[in-house]
């Protein structure tokens, strides 16, 4: 049975295959040239049904298809590329506004913390504790220096 008759019934017209040398072979399964081959025959590279691409050519093709928005993603739908630039610009602007709002809120918080006053009793107790700590540290230093002198 001719291989072309088998392949012409497929839904997918093109099939791509990559070999170890980095060469891509793209087969047009609906090509009339395949009807002359039997199912046991190999399809030669010089057949009009086969298109050969190097690895670099294939990558360039994929990049261009992505840029044009015709590249199908894994789900099979086309990747929308129109409008991304506007979305990115508006999102970058929104991020900048949010960062500015966050910075302003942090400054206000710090100002509130600085302005929060304690009671006079608290301040007196705080100063007393600091004085006691200084005296204790001075006493320890005096003991250390007299111990060295002896």
Overall description:
The structure is a single chain. Helix content is 55%, strand content 9%. The model is unreliable at 74-78 (pLDDT under 50). The protein folds into 3 domains: 3-68, no CATH class; 83-116; 120-150. It is mostly helical and 150 residues long.
- The domain count comes to 3
Poorly predicted segments: 74-78
Alpha-beta content class: mainly alpha
- Arrangement of strands in the largest sheet: 1-2-3
List the helices and strands and how they pair.
Blueprint (H helix, E strand, L loop, with lengths): L2 H6 L5 E5 L5 E5 L21 E4 L1 H14 L15 H32 L4 H30 L1
Antiparallel strand pairs: 1-2, 2-3
Tags for this model:
3 domains; mainly alpha; single chain; 3-stranded antiparallel β-sheet; 4 helices; 9% strand; 150 residues; 3 strands
What's this entry about, in short?
The protein has four helices and three strands. It is mostly helical and 150 residues long.
